[in-house]
## 1
Amino acid sequence: MSLHIEAKKGDIAESVLLPGDPLRAKWIAENYLENPKCYNNIRGMLGYTGNYKGKRVSVQGTGMGIPSILIYCTELIKEYGVKNLIRVGSAGSYQPDINLMDIILAMSASTNSAINQSVFPNSIFAPTANFDLLMKTTDYAKAKKIPFRAGNILTSDKFYEDDPDSFRTWADHGVLCVEMETAGLYSVAAKYGVKALAILTISDSLVTKEKITAEIRETKLAQMTELALNSF
Ligand SMILES: O=P(O)(O)O[C@H]1O[C@H](CO)[C@@H](O)[C@H]1O
Ligand SMILES: O=c1cc[nH]c(=O)[nH]1
């Protein structure tokens, strides 16, 4: 048992899917895993382990923002020996040709967070996806004809910006979308020498202001889940 996860050693698989929303974790476990067992309910941050096509896999809610995902990933890696961490998250589109429900693979995560500044004073660390997980996911997506975009994303410390147009500088530099955890995930994975990838579904657009419902975010993200389960 760790501070925020009440699982016993061995209860958690080497590969873990990481939705921000714990109810998305429950939905994935109930709809995709054989014999799912709930191993965590501390703070309602649900975690499950089961089987998918003969592979043992876990799914763990992380909460919102870098501080929260760092707590869960650090404990998963250090206390439970997790080796593959695959975020399955929602994101806001920064580009006019990226639409609701599109799938984004985060090759890298720019950030306005200061988490790495104390580690690399006067320098900027580039949080990057693991190449093996990324290649396996793109191979699977192409074989199954699941469309995706891959590129740089922004991990932001703020969901609500004072200036609604502040995203345009990122957009002008080709950044695809915004979310709130991936730069933390890629940084902690790099520190401990494990593999990480973020697979995202566009839930809203900062360009057109459209959005999907909370119910769809919790329970209808099938393509992203299928890609994540076939990424390792
Ligand atoms: O859908 P999840 O995985 O929570 O991801 C996105 O949604 C939350 C904001 O609504 C942030 O956590 C952001 O990263
Ligand atoms: O962090 C996020 C997640 C989804 N949509 C956004 O606009 N921001």
## 2
Amino acid sequence: MAFVSVDQLSKTFDKTAVIKDLSFQLEKGKCVSLLGQNGAGKTTTLRMLSGLMKPTKGTISIDGASPSSDIRSFIGYLPQHPVFHNWMTGKEFLVYVGRLAHLSKKEATTRAESLLKQVGIEDAKNRRIGKYSGGMKQRLGIAQAMIHKPKLIMLDEPVSSLDPVGRREVLTLLEELKQETTVLFSTHILSDAEEVSDELLLLHDGHIVESGTMDDLQSQHDSTRIDLSFSKEAHAFEVPISQIDSVENVQREGNQLHIYAKNIENARTEILKLASEQDWPMTKFEVSRTSLEDLFMKVVNQ
Ligand SMILES: Nc1ncnc2c1ncn2[C@@H]1O[C@H](COP(=O)(O)OP(=O)(O)OP(=O)(O)O)[C@@H](O)[C@H]1O
């Protein structure tokens, strides 16, 4: 059985279905991103997985247990907007959280010290949290979620609110965390997902529309296209190009043509031949690959 298994999960608020028959599985030790635009249902999904919200329908199993039983002892959760006691120091806060997680005072102190070091805020451990920057608070939040050495850590948009420096620091920290535990984090930024995660779940309109490793998704959706620009309107060149055998589809955009072909090499040769024979006023000839970004945009714009 998969480490995390979600089956036909649904959540309805005031008769509006926000999560619709969501199913996916996670393997132990992976770092997986839940990617979706604002309002896709990422927070709702993570809250149900962490046991903070009851599903309307469907089942969740994490290491064989359901969120209604006591999974708190082996999951860690960082909400999108964590709330801290600003008057406490970072170290006091972590010891306090450790005690809430049933660690002895000695264990909580040792663990707090080691996490402060690991997340890179050791120098600020005796400073009040109110004086921490956004990036430091986020790192403290991650330390808090890791206090009891969870088997699964879930992080809701851990880098969204950070500036580029803070974002880089937290992404690097996520890279390190995935050596110790299974990580599921949500984001609406594809490049963050691409950079850190082994696998991606693309959530749109309450269900998973694409999933897999970056390589799988890249190769499934990878296609090549030829972009041509002309010094005048491109419609005169559209017809001869569309008649080339290997060309599947031609899209015109003003002075440009985007050409999708079954065999890009043949299409390239034939187009260049026509261009030279008919002396086309071509200003650009470019072979480009479609990326995961294109896939993401295609899915979210549907
Ligand atoms: N408690 C609630 N009551 C009613 N509607 C809710 C509630 N919680 C979430 N929603 C709605 O569910 C939808 C999904 O919200 P959710 O916060 O899960 O999305 P998200 O993907 O995390 O978005 P964001 O990136 O903006 O945080 C939204 O339309 C939101 O308004």
